[in-house]
Amino acid sequence: MSATGLLDVKGLRVSFGGKEVVHGVDFSIAAGEKLALVGESGSGKTVTALALLRLVQNARVSGSAMLSGVEGSAGPVDLLSLPERQLLGIRGRDIAMIFQEPMTALNPLFSVGDQIAEVLQLKQGLTARQAWAAAIEALAATGIPEPARRAGAYAHQLSGGQRQRAMIAMALACRPKLLLADEPTTALDVTLRAQILELLSDLQRQTGMALLMITHDLNLVRKFADRVAVMENGHLVEEGGVARVFADPQHPYTRKLIDSRPVRDVSEEAAAAAEPVMQAKAMHVSYPVPIAGIKGWFRKGQFLAVKGADFAIPPGRTLGVVGESGSGKSTLALAALGLIPHAGELDVVGRRWGPDAASNKEIRRLVQVVFQDPFSSLSPRMTVEEIVGEGLLVHEPKLPLPQRRERVIGALSDVGMAEAQFPGLLSRYPHEFSGGQRQRLAIARALIVQPELLILDEPTSALDVTIQKQVLKLLQRLQREKGLAYLLITHDVDVIRAMAHEVVVMKDGVILESGSVDQVLNAPRQDYTRTLVAAAS
Question: H helices within 448-523, ranges in order?
Fold first, then answer.
């Protein structure tokens, strides 16, 4: 290993129950270097990183992972053969990790300050008072607003970006030599992604740490990494400098990943003069909030989450809604689904959401939703036939079983899933499918009741780039064939470019800018829109 080498991995193999999932991987990271490990879900990226710290349960790990500069060691130590007690001292101190989803990685029972302070007490022997002060300093270093107040907050009281900053503060509290970052920006808006990447770069320059970034976001790799290593089915198929790999990829799989950006394939014809599927005029959505002091005993304040929204969605067209976390996108979608009360006008094919379920039943058939994470939105206890056919039990309860099954098979066929391809398809459960296949099931479930509008809430953000491209192609085809209207909620500007006809940009509950996709993305009038577009390019 070179004089500046920090970690040298040789012949890393990981197997579960005799089945090998990582096959003899070799790579190295120099001090202060940023290495991106890329590939689709199931390629072995996360297992490789977790294996370095022996955090993979019930796995057999072999090979070597030589780490330099460990306190108390004359030379490099092999992470894969160290006693557990010695490795425990390295975790968090010499090597730290940022996990993909901070909401599940952070303990909901303790404030973020307590969780950071715990690391400092265990790893650096600080007193409780010293650790708390250091935790506030660590939060301040990540740029989180009001760090002293945020230190006392719980995970659910922070936004996605703030939770991720708290995770970074915890990981970097002991100034590790190597940071393992597992999809640290996947769930964040484009501007927050840029902020987190800039933050990591700044902190890396200040501390001189190395960084192993696990991701499927190729735009992120272009901007952030020094070198890139590509994994496919547990094999390291290509490695090199970012500029060289992206300009001249050698392996077919690398070329496939690079060519997986969303492609625009929608009908560009202007919609005929028809009644909009959904139309809003001066729509407001507010939430009650507590008022400090004695006044709060007698009344609640109001937080305006959506302020005076105007939009219309004609048949066969897509309205894209973009903005940062807290901009009001999700609140607008919930109001469109009739799940929260609103003021102002909101018409669905000339009808209004009513105060009771019975009056809304027909509208609910016309407006269906596809959620961000297909795994959590599908019941693990229901079969494919039960999941896809559930809407028919509500909206066509008298439909005989043979006809209902025929409709289920038809809906599955519409999304490219057939019995010939998946034997026993109707009796399978969601865990037996990949992420992209589960999202196809979610789309089939929405389509079976023959809606006129689909609300797509980040429908591809949880998917790999190649699977994302497939799902977007499916949605484009369904729109052309069935004349569906889409309300597309996303922070991915590439998805907006591929799918949307019209775009609205939201900030702090207000629609700042609206217009055609070309007008808004190519010639934005607002500085905020320009920032969003620049962060995504």
Answer: 465-482, 493-499, 517-522
